[in-house]
Design a protein that fits this description.
This protein is mainly β. It contains two helices and eight strands; from the N terminus they run ααββββββββ.
Length: 169
């Protein structure tokens, strides 16, 4: 007598060689996907690429990863810009949007086959960030230290009211 396998056993694929499958398993089509052959180096990384990645194509632009958070009075944007000089950065601020653009150039050229691992991004990058609240463009500031760009954007207080005196005359 064959014992019916539990749902978990069927889901996880636990089975012994002699197990029989439910009838719905027999109805599934079987397809064979050819395995992709890769050349592996001694570190386990792919030894070479036959085609360049999209990031390596001329004219491709990277997207800068950012952290955005708020305090009671400011919205703060942080981004790693290691290897980029401050004069190579362009920051545009409007009341509801920040755009950061820049370029990180390789200081020395290394021939493709001489690389073992290539994960760093080189080239131009940009990032547009929609802000959750309007900010004071004139009072905003940006600084870079140890490769970390910090942009401080003071929030506009929409609830703040002032009383105007009417002048006669």
């Amino acid at each position: 007598m064959t014992t019916k396998r539990s749902f978990f056993d069927r889901l996880s694929g636990n089975s012994s060689v002699g197990d029989s499958f439910d009838s719905f398993d027999d109805e599934l089509p079987t397809t064979t996907i050819p395995a992709r052959k890769e050349t592996r180096g001694r570190t386990g990384e792919s030894a070479g690429r036959s085609a360049p990645l999209d990031d390596d194509l001329p004219g491709s632009e990277g997207q800068l990863p950012v952290d955005v958070h708020q305090t009671a009075s400011d919205i703060i944007v942080r981004a790693f810009v290691a290897g980029v000089r401050p004069d190579e950065l362009s920051i545009s601020i409007s009341r509801d949007r920040v755009e950061i653009e820049g370029s990180r150039m390789e200081r020395e050229q290394v021939v493709g086959p001489d690389y073992f691992t290539r994960e760093l991004f080189w080239g131009s990058f940009s990032r547009a960030i929609m802000l959750p609240q309007e900010v004071d463009v004139e009072a905003s500031s940006a600084s870079a230290k140890d490769g970390l760009l910090t942009i401080i954007l003071p929030k506009l207080d929409k609830a703040r009211q002032t009383k105007l005196k009417v002048k006669s005359g």
